[in-house]
Amino acid sequence: MFGYAPSFFYSQFLVTPPVPTTSCAGKTIIITGANTGLGREAARRYVQLGASKLIIGCRNLDKGRDAAEDIASSTGRDRSIIDVWPLDLTDYESVKKFADQTRELDRIDIVIENAGIHATKFHEVAGNESNITVNVISTFLLLCLLMPTLRKQKGNGITPTLTIVSSSLHFTTPFLEKNEANIFEALRDEKKTNMGMRYQTSKLLEVLALGGLAKQHPVEQLGVTINTVNPGWCHSELGRDMHSALFDVAKKIMCRTTEVGSRNLVDAGLRGPETHGKYLSDCQVEKRAPMVEGPGGDELQDRVWKELGVELEKIEPGVLNLLR
């Protein structure tokens, strides 16, 4: 954790991610949680870059429509290119319905799985603690369920990209649950839970699971590039329930603007097979936490993906077959 601090401060104070300029003409792009914050700014940038269709997936459709109007107005693009679809990551049936709706599409070029929560109190949702349900299980359930539509372009020489928005905070968790016989059973146990580290743990699980998945399914077989991205510490609604004088001062001094942070999301979605299974930060591939890349890291990636796969199969039997 202490080795993480210098790179964090360097990134926050001395690095400004470049503005993406790659054309998105003809592309269909899905961003979850794009009704606000980083997702909204990433959506705005993709529309500025010429995306042919943008789909916002969010819980609050009124806020989603407001975002769509704002994006269309600020970019001078026609409102008709932006759709707003219901998506509630606390409800697995909502995730399934969202994925089913994409079957109507001829193509998906980029998916940014940006929606997430930072809950500080233990609350069970859909059989798991809420951070785990939303940030991990539903996120990977959606990844699997989107594969049939993403793969429609496999024969056209086009490799779509699916990006999961993670965080450099994945460096900071001790992840004690890894010492238990079953990781997800341990994560469900409120008595063993340190909620002060639960969000960080959920972000580590994203990085571990995606690494394990990517090893098991190389991009040549999967036909889709999958990666994770760190936007940096930005002004956003995530963690809006966290308040203290010191925290508020630190945010004012250190946080990137939402637009600057969103550049990382846009860049990650524009990347190709060279980033499969990788973690991006400041618009470049970076090393993941020592727990991921150090001794035992490969085994832990495989274990997390295997155990997560069991959870996904409980929700939707046969869902892992969509990756084959």
UniProtKB/TrEMBL annotation:
Keywords: Oxidoreductase. One of its GO terms (molecular function) is oxidoreductase activity. Pfam families: adh_short. It comes from the Eukaryota. Signal peptide: none annotated. The keyword Oxidoreductase applies. PANTHER family: PHOSPHATIDYLINOSITOL-GLYCAN BIOSYNTHESIS CLASS F PROTEIN, PHOSPHATIDYLINOSITOL-GLYCAN BIOSYNTHESIS CLASS F PROTEIN-RELATED. This is Short-chain dehydrogenase/reductase.
